[in-house]
Every structure is written in structure tokens, then in C-alpha cells.
Design a protein that fits this description.
The structure holds 2 protein chains of 2 kinds. By secondary structure, chain A is mainly beta. Chain A has a single domain, classed as Alpha-Beta Plaits (2-Layer Sandwich). Helices cover about 5% and strands about 35% of the residues of chain A. Chain A is built from 1 helix and 7 strands; from the N terminus they run E-E-E-H-E-E-E-E. In chain A, the strands form 3 sheets. In chain A, strands 5-6-7 form a 3-stranded antiparallel sheet. A two-stranded antiparallel sheet of chain A has the order 1-4. Chain A is globular, with a radius of gyration of 14 Å. The relative contact order of chain A is 0.18. Among the domains of chain B are: about 100 residues, Succinate dehydrogenase/fumarate reductase flavoprotein, catalytic domain (Flavocytochrome C3, Chain A, domain 1, Alpha-Beta Complex); about 110 residues, Fumarate reductase/succinate dehydrogenase flavoprotein-like, C-terminal domain (Methane Monooxygenase Hydroxylase, Chain G, domain 1), CATH 1.20.58.100. The longest helix of chain B is centred in the C-terminal third of the chain and has 26 residues. In chain B, helix 4 packs across helix 11 and helix 6 packs across helix 15. Chain B is built from 15 helices and 23 strands. Chain B starts with about 25 loop residues before the first strand and ends in a 13-residue tail after the last strand. In chain B, strands 8-3-2-12-19 form a 5-stranded parallel sheet, with helices on one face. In chain B, strands 1-11-10-9 form a 4-stranded mixed sheet. By secondary structure, chain B is of the alpha/beta class. The chains are: A mainly beta, B alpha/beta. Chains A and B meet through helix 1, strand 6 and strand 7 of A and strand 5, strand 7, helix 9 and helix 10 of B. The complex binds flavin-adenine dinucleotide and iron/sulfur cluster (SF4) (2 copies).
Chain lengths: ~100, ~600
């Protein structure tokens, strides 16, 4: 278990279906669904593709996860990685076009 | 060509008829070259072949946008020849790191192309960090920083731009079709439509990556795939090759990775990025206790744990700017690691320490030819022991420390050799001319060896649909096989140690599990894929155990300890194998094979 689809945000556009390296995502009643969650690698390819911030990555309890969720808002090559929990919020920006902005 | 699902013998039979599991129609494609695996190596080979004018079929089980090890991205090119260094330096480094079990001829041909392939990556849009003089910024003499979170989509874009490449996705390749030790093409199953796919060509390249998920992983079943390597590379290229009779090498040089605990994130980002060093629970540095090779460093870590000096950490002084840079670097390669850092910041309620520290752990062993040297036994041009079959990237053996640029270099070497063979007329298409339009469903008269190979492969795929519903599932057998290797073949539970007796136990248990797979029932393309992949894993596991048995020494003590043979035996050379009707046959090859008498003849 590594990622969750956020049902209120998913619009069933199907983009995430065609980037998962394990082909783990399908549409279920026109919403994205992870077919076998225990097989998720946690690579975040689906997060990077979703235009609607509808997928969250988190760490399992065995990995020291305490509920912090990572989602991505995209603007061209710029990614805004948002980590959120009720008591915590931060945003990290990466841009794959800018080498200096490492 | 259509295969009917098996009709019941007697229509009045009261037993329910086994329903047709998935569509049994077949689609046939032809080209000059079939490439299996649209990862780093396979995509690059396809591009170069297309550029030389050849029609290529690229088979990928997922989607090339993000498939393979590069799905999360990369933040460095780990194989590069830095200023003032030469390819020979890289050969020496990699040979030394492999404790001499490496092919210097393969390493040299790869090393010569590393920097050229870095340039190619920049040309397709990879942002590479440069210094004030405009030179690539080196993290070490063989490693440069890149902003590669989206590198795989860039490679996919370059692949799709080639009109001569037919990209077929969601195809699980299952068979290398051969006759008389000659490759004729590849068979697979379309996981979406359930159609059998035949991709026929006189040249085949295998680029399916290494084998993960053989051993029980560090994380529990609910997060079993939170491992370091791509869990979707299950070793099927190795299994296909074994079934086709190809020779494999050095599978016993398992890679045990020293990684961040829990996330299994690579540690180089911290070690090279902010100069982090390893400390045991008493704050003592121990890294160099046994030496500097990868195996020796893993050993030093494991010894701390055995002596009660764990847990160990990777720690560096870190100003806020460097911390932010490390967070971004991990987002580009293993986002979970940044999440782990943020979880600890959150726990500290904003009190961010001036040291960056994280626990480290050793991974479960895996088989691959990218860091270590397990894979196909190849010639300098990456041809395998099967005529018309090449192997590149993490599936090819004998040439460790490849990483992204080395995988690209091998693609370059193989593609150049194949293009040359077509140019000189040594390779020609099968019975149909190569200028057949692509993507056409053909049903030509096939020549006899091909018909036989196809029929055999068809039968091997469809037989699982004819089974009665089975008591066990492929998942259960996968977990059982992982338990066997973990305990009897030197997994985490066994402290990476094994003996002749424990390996013999592993062999018999794996063989029993392989027999169980024959009764599994496929009722959809997905259940078939699960069955086929556990069979692939079991076959690679059996070959691995035979290799471990045959290397009667402890050469890489960090990666594994053969309790019956704790000392080195330099007479062993390479341990190679081949699948024969009698089982896995072991072949010993000298360190300088193929007439390479010594280093001078490189
Ligand atoms: C987490 C991680 C981080 C890394 N970071 C770096 C780094 O920063 N720098 C660096 O230089 N290297 C890095 N590497 C190493 C680098 O990614 C690999 O060396 C490289 O990807 C190997 O290329 P490949 O083509 O052999 O395998 P892959 O790129 O993994 O490609 C294999 C392909 O084969 C497909 N496939 C497998 N089986 C089948 C089948 N039966 N049918 C059809 N298709 C199949 C897979 O889906 C996949 O697309 C990293 C590796 C990992 C795992
Ligand atoms: S995180 Fe990666 S493996 Fe998991 S569902 Fe998303 S794309 Fe697939
Ligand atoms: S990409 Fe996002 S919105 Fe589209 S189907 Fe996937 S989760 Fe839903």
C-alpha cells in the first residue's frame, strides 16, 4: 500500500492508467482504482501524471509512515510537491527543465 | 491464425466446460528486429536501429512512458568518465569492485561509450548540471549530477518519434522462439485483449532488466513491492533465455544493496551529495573496515549489526540549503525518501536539526547485471550463445557497474552490430520481405521450424486455461518461493549465509513449487501473467541456487557467505549455466575467455 486515489478529485480522465510501470491502475465506475495495492512500488509516476492532484503517496506503517501525504500540482515542467497532514504542510518545487534548480 | 479453445470431449459431459479464458486469436507482426523490454536499454537500441533504417518491434509489458527502473527518475548518471580519467580507469574500478569476476573486454567496450551516451541524453532534453566553465558537474570522477525526474518520458518521446518503431505495450513476452539454437522471434500475451502476439524477426534483443522479488523482501506483504529495484522486472528475460537454451553467467554474484532503512532509497545521494558517512550506534565510523568495494562495505555494515553495534545511520552536517537540495534530489529518484525526511521533520514540530541523519539497512539479494554481473553470457557485441539473440542492460552479465549510461552504451554496441549484419546481408528477414507494412495481421505460410516453435509456445500458454480451478494461487506460490530462498539460499533471515545442505533443500523445495505451478488455472490475461511470472521467478531461482552451489568459495562476503567454503578459490573462473533436459548444467569458464589470453589482448 503506497498510493490512494482521492475520489472527490479524480475525474476519471484515465491518464494515470498509461504510466504505471506495473500496469496496476484501472477505471472502476469511472474513477481510477489501484488493482492490487500491495504491488505498488511507490514510484509516483501516476502522481506526476494526474492533472487534478487526485493521487496521494504515503508511507506504510512498516516504513515509519504517520499519515503524511504527498500530492503533486503540475504546471508545465514545474512540479509543486505538497506534503500535508492535519498538523503539517509544506511545498517543495522541482523543475525538470532547470539543471541549476536542483 | 486462430486457436480454438479446447472443446469438451463429450458435449453431454455433466462437468462444467472450462470457459475460454481469454481470446485465443493471434496477431502476427514482422520486422527486422524485435526488442523485448522498453526500458532504458531496449528503447535506445530500438531508436538506433530505426535510425539505421530497420523496422523494429518494441515489446513492453507496461507503458514505455514510465516503465522499468527509471519510473521514479534518476538524479545522477552513475557511470561516466570524469576529467583526467580514461575508460581503462573505469574497467579497473569495476573489475576490482567485482573482486575480479568481470569481463574486461565487455567493460572496456562499454566504458568507451559512456560519455557519448550522456551527451545523447542531454540532446533529448535531460537537464545536466554544469560548472562555471560549462562542464558537467561531477559528484565523483565517475558520476555526474542530473535533473532526471522525467528522464524516462524523454526517452519515450524520442522512441515514439521514430516511425520505424512499432511500440506494442501491455505485452508480456513469454517465449524466445528458436529452432536449432537460432532465434526466430518472440511470443507474448497482450494483457489487455488476451490475444497472443507473435513478433517475428531474424534478430532479437532482450532488454528486460534484472530479477527482483526472488527473495523475501524487507517490508511486509502489504508493502512487499516497496523495494529498491523495480519490482516489475521479475527476471523473465533470464527465464526466457534459459528455456531457449542460452548460457548465463555469474548469477551467484547477487546484489545486496545498502539502502536507507524502510524506504530502500539509494544512499549515494547522501554520501556523494552532502558527504554523509556511516556511523554505528556508538557513533563510530566503520565503512572501510574491510575495504572499499561494494561487497566489502555491505559486509562492514552487517558486521556492526552482528556485533550488537546497530542500528547504523548515514549522517552529515547539513545546512538548510543542502537539505532542500537533497529533498529535491530524492523527489527526482525516490520520492518516498523525501516523505520520510518530512515525516521526521513533522515529528520534531519544525525544530530542524543541523544534521541530516537516516538509518540504513541491507536489502534482500537480487540478480542483475547492472550493478553486479549476473545475466546472459555475451560476446563483445552483446550477442548471446543463441544465434540472432542479443542481450543488453541489466539482463546481460559479465559487465557490472552499468547504470543508465552503461545500459545505453550496450544498446549502442548491439544496435551497431545488428545494423552492420543487415548491411552486409548476413542477416535477412524471414520468408517475407522486410518491407512488409508494419502492424498488419498476417497469416502467411510459415516455414516449418517456425511453425513448430510457434505451436509449442502456443501450447505452453494456453494449457493453463485448460486446468481445473486450483487450490493454490500464483501469489501463494510466489510467497512460498521467497520464503525458501530467504531461509535456505542466504536471504535476510539467514544472514545472507548458506551451505551445500541448505542449497540442496532450496532446490528440492523450489522444484516442488514449480510442479505446483503446473496445476494453476488461468482464467484471464492477468491470472495467466501471474502464473507465468511465478514460473519465471522459480526457474531463475533454481538457476541461481545451482550457481551458488557451484561457486565453492566466498568471494563477495558482503553479498553472501558459503559456510562450507569460506575461502577464495581462484581456479573457479566464471560460473556459467545452461538449462538442459536434465536440469541446470554448470559450466566453468576461464577469466579470460574467447581467446583473450590476458589483459593485453583487450
Ligand atoms: C530506484 C533506482 C534508482 C536508480 N538510480 C540511478 C541513477 O540515479 N543513475 C543511474 O545511472 N542509474 C540508476 N539506476 C540504474 C538504472 O535505472 C538501470 O541500470 C537501468 O534502468 C537498466 O536499464 P534496463 O533497460 O536494463 O532495465 P529497465 O530500464 O528496468 O527496463 C526493463 C524493461 O523491460 C520491461 N519488461 C520486463 N519483463 C518484460 C516482459 N516479460 N515482457 C515485456 N517487457 C518486459 C520492463 O517493463 C521495463 O520497461 C537506478 C535504478 C533504480 C532501481
Ligand atoms: S506509485 Fe507507481 S507503481 Fe504505484 S500505482 Fe502509481 S505508478 Fe503504479
Ligand atoms: S489521472 Fe487523476 S483524474 Fe485522471 S483518472 Fe487518474 S487519478 Fe483520476
Amino acid at each position: 500500500m503506497s498510493v490512494k486515489i482521492i475520489p472527490d478529485r479524480c475525474r476519471g480522465c484515465g491518464r494515470c492508467l498509461t504510466v504505471c510501470p506495473g500496469d496496476l491502475i484501472a477505471l472502476d465506475s469511472s474513477l481510477a482504482a489501484i488493482k492490487e495495492p500491495e504491488l505498488c512500488w511507490g514510484c509516483a509516476a501516476c502522481l506526476k501524471t494526474c492533472p487534478y492532484e487526485a493521487i496521494a503517496l504515503y508511507l506504510s506503517p512498516a516504513q515509519g509512515g504517520r499519515g503524511l501525504k504527498l500530492t503533486i500540482k503540475k504546471d508545465g515542467t514545474t512540479l509543486f510537491w505538497k506534503a500535508t497532514a492535519p498538523d503539517y504542510q509544506t511545498v517543495i518545487v522541482t523543475d525538470s527543465a532547470k539543471a541549476k534548480d536542483y | 491464425m486462430t486457436l480454438d479453445s479446447k472443446a469438451p470431449k463429450d458435449v453431454n459431459d455433466a462437468k462444467p466446460v472450462c470457459p475460454a479464458p481469454f481470446s485465443l486469436t493471434t496477431v502476427t507482426h514482422r520486422a527486422a528486429v524485435v526488442v523485448v523490454g522498453g526500458g532504458v536499454a531496449g528503447s535506445r537500441a530500438a531508436i538506433l536501429l530505426a535510425e539505421s533504417g530497420l523496422n523494429v518491434i518494441l515489446l513492453e509489458k507496461a507503458f514505455i512512458e514510465r516503465s522499468g527502473c527509471l519510473a521514479p527518475g534518476v538524479n545522477a548518471l552513475n557511470a561516466y568518465i570524469g576529467y583526467g580519467k580514461t575508460p581503462i580507469d573505469y574497467v579497473d574500478y569495476a573489475t576490482n569492485d567485482a573482486h575480479s569476476i568481470a569481463r574486461k573486454d565487455l567493460l572496456l567496450s562499454m566504458s568507451k561509450l559512456l560519455n557519448e551516451e550522456a551527451l545523447w541524453l542531454e540532446s533529448i532534453g535531460l537537464a545536466i548540471h554544469k560548472d562555471s566553465k560549462g562542464r558537467y558537474l561531477e559528484r565523483s570522477w565517475r558520476n555526474i549530477q542530473v535533473n532526471g525526474g522525467d528522464l524516462k518520458p524523454l526517452i519515450a518521446k524520442a522512441t515514439r518519434a521514430q516511425e520505424k518503431i512499432l511500440v506494442l505495450e501491455q505485452i508480456l513476452a513469454t517465449h524466445i522462439l528458436t529452432s536449432d539454437n537460432k532465434a526466430l522471434g518472440v511470443m507474448g500475451l497482450n494483457l489487455k485483449t488476451g490475444k497472443i502476439v507473435e513478433a517475428l524477426a531474424p534478430a532479437v534483443i532482450i532488454a528486460t532488466g534484472g530479477a527482483a522479488g526472488l527473495y523475501r523482501p524487507a517490508n511486509p506483504p502489504e508493502s512487499q513491492n516497496r523495494i529498491w529495484y523495480s519490482p516489475f522486472n521479475v527476471g523473465s528475460g533470464l527465464a526466457m533465455g534459459l528455456r531457449a537454451g542460452a548460457e548465463m553467467t555469474t548469477l551467484e554474484m547477487r546484489f545486496v544493496a545498502l539502502r536507507v532503512a524502510d524506504t530502500l532509497a539509494p544512499t549515494g545521494t547522501l554520501a556523494l551529495g552532502v558527504g554523509a558517512s556511516q556511523l554505528n550506534a556508538k557513533n563510530q565510523a566503520y565503512e572501510a573496515e574491510f575495504g572499499h568495494t561494494t561487497s566489502q562495505r555491505v559486509l562492514a555494515f552487517r558486521r556492526q549489526i552482528q556485533r550488537g553495534l546497530g542500528p547504523c545511520s548515514l549522517t552529515a552536517a547539513c545546512d538548510p540549503e543542502s537539505r532542500a537540495r537533497i529533498y529535491r534530489a530524492y523527489l527526482n529518484m525516490c520520492p518516498s525518501q523525501t516523505l520520510q525526511f518530512l515525516e521526521s521533520e513533522r515529528a520534531l514540530k519544525g525544530q530542524i536539526p543541523d544534521r541530516l541523519t537516516t538509518e540504513i539497512a541491507a536489502s534482500e539479494p537480487l540478480v542483475q547485471g547492472g550493478h553486479t554481473a549476473g545475466g546472459y553470457w555475451v560476446e563483445r557485441d552483446r550477442r548471446t550463445t543463441i544465434e540472432g539473440l542479443w542481450a543488453i542492460g541489466d539482463v546481460a552479465g559479465g559487465c557490472p557497474q552499468k547504470y543508465v549510461t552503461g545500459s545505453l552504451a550496450e544498446a549502442n554496441i548491439a544496435a551497431t552490430a545488428i545494423a552492420e549484419l543487415f548491411k552486409t546481408g548476413s542477416l535477412k528477414s524471414l520468408s517475407h520481405p522486410e518491407d512488409q507494412p508494419l502492424n498488419q495481421e498476417l497469416d502467411p505460410e510459415l516455414n516449418q521450424p517456425l511453425t513448430q516453435a510457434l505451436a509449442k509456445a502456443h501450447q505452453e500458454i494456453t494449457r493453463f486455461s485448460q486446468n481445473e480451478p486450483s487450490l493454490f494461487t500464483a501469489k501463494e506460490i510466489t510467497q512460498a518461493a521467497r520464503k525458501v530462498l530467504d531461509i535456505y539460499a542466504g536471504g535476510i533471515a539467514a544472514g545472507y549465509a548458506y551451505s551445500f545442505a541448505s542449497l540442496t533443500a532450496a532446490e528440492s523445495r523450489l522444484t516442488a513449487l514449480m510442479e505446483l505451478t503446473e496445476g494453476l488455472k488461468a482464467d484471464s490475461p492477468q491470472t495467466f501473467a501471474a502464473i507465468w511470472e511465478v514460473k519465471d521467478r522459480l526457474l531463475v531461482s533454481l538457476a541461481l541456487v545451482a550457481h551458488l552451489k557451484a561457486r565453492k568459495e566466498t568471494r563477495w562476503p558482503g553479498f553472501g557467505e558459503y559456510l562450507d567454503y569460506p575461502v577464495l578459490d581462484d581456479s573457479l573462473g566464471f560460473v556459467n549455466s545452461r538449462l538442459t533436459p536434465k536440469g541446470i548444467e554448470i559450466i566453468h569458464r576461464p577469466i579470460y575467455p574467447n581467446g583473450l589470453k590476458s589483459e593485453k589482448s583487450l
